[in-house]
Amino acid sequence: MENTLAYAQAQDKNDELKDFRQRFYFPRLNNKFVIYFTGNSLGLQPKTTQDYVLNELEDWASFGVEGHFHARNPWFSYHEILTEKTAKIVGALPQEVVMMNQLTVNLHLLLVSFYRPTKQRYKIICEAKAFPSDLYALQSQVTFHGFNYKDALIEIEPREGEKSLRTEDILKAIEENKNELAVVLFGGINYYSGHVLDMKTITEATHKAGAYCGFDLAHAAGNIKLHLHDWQVDFACWCSYKYLNAGPGSVAGAFVHEKHLRNFDLPLFTGWWGHDKETRFKMEPEFIPMPTAERWQLSNAPVLSMAAYKASLDIFDEAGMDRLTAKSKRLTSYLEFIINQVNNLTNTPDKYFEVITPGDRSCQLSMVPHGRGKELFTQLTAHGVIADWREPDVIRMAPVPLYNSFEDVFQFGEILLHLCAK
User: Rounded to an integer, what distance in angstroms lies between the CA atom of residue 109 and that of residue 100?
Assistant: First the structure.
C-alpha cells in the first residue's frame, strides 16, 4: 500500500464495483461533497429510491384500496418480493426471513418465543454495555417474567486492558451457566468496537448447553457474509437503515431457523398477517399460523418503507455479497494503513490514534484519538468528514464498499494529517 493519491486512484480504477458509487446521493457541506464514513449509522440514499416510493404513491392515487391486489407490486404480498434477496444477504432460506416492524419490536416478538424461562433455566448471556435496543429489551423481558435482571443477565466484558470480547470468554460463561441458561444473545458485530463475533462457534456452544442462540445483526446485515441457516442460529433480527440503505427508521428484518417453523407449539404473539394467507380474509376466529417466518408478522406491510428498502436491495443483489465483502476488506485495510501513516508522521507519547477494532472485522474501524478527544471529531466534521462519535472516546468510521472509494480514504488521511499539524 502507498499513501499517495496516485495509488488510491489506481485502486479505484481497477475496482469492479466503482460504478455503484454513482447510484447514491452524497450530502454536501459548504457546497462540497463530504467523505461519508457513516454507513454504520445511516446508509446513503440510492438515486432510485424516489422512483420506487413514487410508484407506490402513484398506485395509491390510481387504485386506492384496490392497490392491495392491482398495484404494480400488489401490497397484499409486497413483503414477499423482498424475501429471496434478503435471504441471500443473511445466508438463510427464503422461508426463514421476513421484513417487518422495527428491530426492537422484532427482538421482543422473537424473545416471546425463545425466552421461556423456568425456575431452573432463566438466565441470558449478552455483552456488557450492549446497545440500548438490546439491553432494555432483555431487562424488560426478564422483569416481565418475574425475575431480577441483575441476577438473570450475565454480561460478558472484555478483559482488563482490552476493548473486544474473546470467544473463549464467551464459551466459558456458557459452560459455567449451562444448567441455568435459557438464551444467549449478542450483537453479531459489536457496535462500539466493530468486532465481528464468531457466531457459528457461539451458537454451537449454546446448543450444547441446551439453550437458544440469537443475534442482533444491526451492524452485520449487508456488511459481512452471514450463514444463519448453516450456523443453526435459532433467531435473529436487524434494521435496514444502516448498511442496507433503506432510509431512517425503515422496515426491519427477522430470521427464524427452519427447524422451528413447524413447531406450532412454540408460543408467540399473533396478529392477522401471521395467519395462513390462503384463508386470512375469511376472518375465522381460530389462528392458523403460516409455516414460515411470516408467522411472526402482526400487521400488513408498511409498503412505502419497503419500497425504499427494495431500491437498495436490488442494488445489493446486483453487486453481490462476495464482491462487496472482498472490497470491504481491502478498503478497511487501506484505512488502517493510512491511520498508521498519520501516526508515524505525528505520533507523540500523549497524542496518537489507536485502532481498537480487532482482526475479525467488517468495514467499520473504531479509533481512539488519544490526547485529542471529541474536539478532533468536531474538526473532522467541519472539514467534510462525516463519521460518528461514541462515548466515551471512540470515532467510528465505515468505508462502505458500495459507495466509498480508496480516494475517500486517502483524502481522509490528508485531512487528519492537516488537523494534527494544525
Answer: 11
Q: What is the CATH number of domain 52-319?
A: 3.40.640.10
Domain boundaries 5-33+321-421, corresponding CATH code = 3.90.1150.10
pTM of the model: 0.96
52-319 and 5-33+321-421 share a CATH fold: no
Residues 6+ apart with CB under 8 A from 320: none
Q: Is the preceding peptide bond at 392 cis, omega within 30 degrees of 0?
A: yes
- Each residue's pLDDT tens digit, 207-263: 999 999 999 999 999 999 999 999 999 999 999 999 999 999 999 999 999 999 999
How far apart CA 325 and CA 398 sit, in angstroms, is 13
How is the beta sheet containing 235-238 ordered, strand by strand?
97-99, 253-256, 235-238, 212-216, 181-187, 123-127, 153-156
Name the grid cell of 404: 466509498
**266, three cell numbers:** 412454540
Q: What are the structural domain ranges in the chain? A: 5-33+321-421, 52-319
